[in-house]
């Protein structure tokens, strides 16, 4: 960075010349050719079950258009229908303090479904749509969540913040006998156990 009068100009070193003189060029010259655009690229995938604070597993039932935390028997867990999630971890060209960028998908009866969020009637809804999680995401996306530890003292449980609505986290809400997966606003400095997810 060079300061000329009151104007700052971004520069980068390009050549070491005679008498060890270092030559610079304005960084704008290289932007189109050298710098990466803001993008997400899949780095690794992990197979996990998602448990809430009550040790219930998240189960997706696309035929009923519902995802909820349920008590699951060992036999049901073995069959794994709608409960073995793939967590797609992405690296980003612009480092974020928000956490690791992840997306979720699940297989149900030989079909793949990805988790996304959509606005409906002024409310954010968590949905599972048939399809695959892409290898690269060129910009913002409604399938990306930021994974962080639940609290600094609880490193084995996590919370997942929706990337397009900061302060909104995956959580569960009781609806009759269901503990339905939702997006929920977190008040600052609040610890909300409904957002606590173990992998």
UniProtKB/TrEMBL annotation:
What Gene3D superfamilies has UniProt attached to this entry?
2.80.10.50
Could you state one GO biological process linked to this protein? inflammatory response
A GO molecular function held by the record: cytokine activity
Task: Say if the entry is tagged with keyword Cell wall biogenesis/degradation.
Answer: no
Name one cellular component (GO) term: cytoplasm
Q: Which family does it belong to?
A: Belongs to the IL-1 family.
Please state what the protein is called.
Interleukin-18
Whose protein is this, by species? Ptilonorhynchus violaceus
Q: What is the lineage of its organism?
A: Eukaryota, Metazoa, Chordata, Craniata, Vertebrata
